[in-house]
Amino acid sequence: MTTPTNTPGQNPWGPPAGVPGMPGMPGMPPQPPFQQPRNGLGVTALVLGIVGLLFALFPFSFWLGAILGVLALIFGIIGHSRARKGEATNKGMALTGLILGAVSIVVSIVWLIVVATAVKDIADDIDEEIKKQEKASAAPADPGTDDAPEAEPTETAPAALKFGEAFTYPDGVKVTVSKPRAYKPDQFAAGHTKGNSAFQVTITIVNGSDKAIDVSTALPDASDAQGAQAEAIFDGSNATEMFRGKVLPGKQAKSDFAFSLPADADDEMQIEVGPTVVEYENAIWTGSTK
Q1: CA distance linking residue 228 with residue 273, whole number of Å
Q2: Are 230 and 174 contacting, i.e. CB atoms less than 8 angstroms apart?
Q3: For range 79-85, the mean pLDDT
Q4: Which end of the chain offers a freer environment for a tag, N or C, measured as fewer CB atoms within 10 Å?
Q5: How confident is the model at residue 27 (pLDDT cuts 50, 70, 90)?
Q6: 261, exposed or middle or buried, with CB in 10 Å at 0-12, 13-18, 19+?
Q7: Strand, helix or coil for residue 152
Q8: Mean pLDDT (the chain, rounded)
Q9: Which residues contact 98 (CB under 8 A, 6 or more apart)?
Q10: Residue 261 backbone dihedrals phi, psi, to 5 degrees
Q11: Please, which residues have CB within 8 angstroms of residue 156's CB and are 6 or more apart in sequence?
């Protein structure tokens, strides 16, 4: 009986050197070496599909959702192919990532259509408004034609009104400024200089038009007898109380305004104010404070 010869340190009963793998059962081919499953692309497809769908659901990030959806679709297809060949074991994960990627792309396309339509509508509205303004500017100011521009509710104010008189605009809006009355600011007053004289007026706005008007911008300017601008007074007793909000047709709003005038120019006062800043010209009231 011949004793098998082996190199030193080798198992005398093991396979000969240089033969890969272990022999199988008698009559069976040798088993191939074990390989790790290639599941990376399937996992990546699932993660990208989930994140892409989240981004695709919002109008400001749908474009990013579309990019991630395309990547998820590509990786899902490759991962699913590997699983079918037996190279990966996460066939369901790759398929889920593929589906989520496709959904992300569809949702992103829907958002793209919505945003593009909205932008087009806004652009059309702006273009239409520009054309209307150009047409109104070029149209003849003939009140007998239908294309005549609508008259603005403005009117050239008289040189000066007396305190207590009302100024009525063409659309029926009426403004009145009362006669100035002496006012004593409290100790926390702002805008009043010691030694100056303080006066307060009441401004009344009556809306005789057929639409509501916003009077929050009705801010009067006051000047003293020398034409210098007077400082508005604010204190804890509501020396000056701004107009707020809108006045409905047939309604009125009243507010008090106090001003500080230098002692050497306090015998006369001028108030300039209009119902709003843009639509109406200011009217002027002037007179003695005594």
Answers
A1: 16
A2: no
A3: 86
A4: N
A5: low
A6: buried
A7: coil
A8: 81
A9: 45, 49, 72, 73, 76, 77, 79, 80
A10: -115, 140
A11: 281
pLDDT score at 143: 46
92/217 Cα distance (integer angstroms) = 66
**Identity of the residue numbered 82:** R
What type of residue sits at position 8?
P
* Predicted model pTM: 0.48
Q: Where are the alpha helices (DSSP H) in 18-90?
A: 40-56, 62-84
Q: Are 42 and 88 in contact (CB under 8 A)?
A: yes
Note whether 199 and 183 are within 8 A (CB): yes
Give the pLDDT of residue 210: 92
Amino acid at 271: I
Q: How far is CA 22 from CA 31, 112, 153, in A?
A: 7, 60, 102
User: What would the two tokens of residue 6 be?
Assistant: 């082996």
The answer to whether the Cα torsion of 238, 243, 246, 252 is positive or negative is: positive
Residue 67 pLDDT class (50, 70, 90 cuts):
very high
Name residue, tokens 């600011």: 185
What letter does residue 222 receive in the DSSP assignment? Answer: E
Tell me the C-alpha distance between 243 and 245, whole Å: 7
Check: CB of residue 191 under 8 Å from CB of residue 234: yes
* Averaged pLDDT for residues 228-254: 87
Q: Say which amino acid occupies 78.
A: I
Q: Determine the Cα–Cα distance for residues 255 and 204; give it in Å rounded to an integer.
A: 7
How much is the pLDDT for 19? Answer: 46
Give the pLDDT band of residue 259 (cuts 50, 70, 90): very high
Extract the tokens encoding 273. Answer: 């104010």
